[in-house]
Design brief:
Spore Coat Polysaccharide Biosynthesis Protein SpsA, Chain A; two-stranded antiparallel ribbon; about 25% helix
């Protein structure tokens, strides 16, 4: 099931969106009464979701064919895996895609100034892998796109409901 969270004040979207999305029976549109922010909307979507595995995508994410299956596979193999795809870059001048290989995977971390940074996978972790597409340990992840087991997400406490921004 795909959940789309919209606010009631988006009146111009209501009927046209309902008609368009009626072609996609797995999509359920949730409409809030008031603005609640990204985190509360995602938590409401989590509670409403019927699937055992959830995927969160920010609105600026563009997905290529075949992007979802590997994420679901990693979570289905181990419900404590949180799967994030490799993030390819779109060139701002040419709109060409700069693809990354799984061997170039980086993990999120922080500088000494507590600024988020991408870091190479530690060599000790690479040596534990049979291939570069296997899950790796990471202290952080990109929050705008990930796949997670619903029960594990709820076990972790989902998001802090007091978060207003990322």
């Amino acid at each position: 099931m795909i959940l789309i969270n919209l606010l009631n004040f988006s009146a111009h979207l209501k009927k046209p969106l309902d008609v368009y999305m009626s072609n996609y029976p797995k999509v359920k549109i949730l409409r809030g009464i008031e603005r609640e922010g990204l985190i509360k909307a995602r938590m409401r979507g989590t509670v409403a979701a019927k699937a055992s595995i959830l995927t969160f995508l920010d609105s600026h994410i563009e997905c290529a064919p075949g992007w979802l299956e590997p994420l679901i596979d990693r979570v289905a193999r181990n419900k404590s895996n949180v799967a994030t795809p490799i993030i390819d870059v779109i060139n701002e001048d040419t709109f060409g895609i700069w693809y990354s290989a799984s061997k170039d995977t980086q993990v999120g971390g922080f500088s000494w100034n507590l600024e988020f940074k991408w870091h190479l996978v530690p060599q000790a972790d690479k040596q534990k892998q049979n291939n570069s597409a296997e899950p790796v340990r990471s202290p952080t992840m990109a929050g705008g796109l990930f796949t997670i087991d619903k029960s594990y997400f709820q076990y972790l406490g989902m998001y802090d409901p007091e978060f207003d921004i990322w």
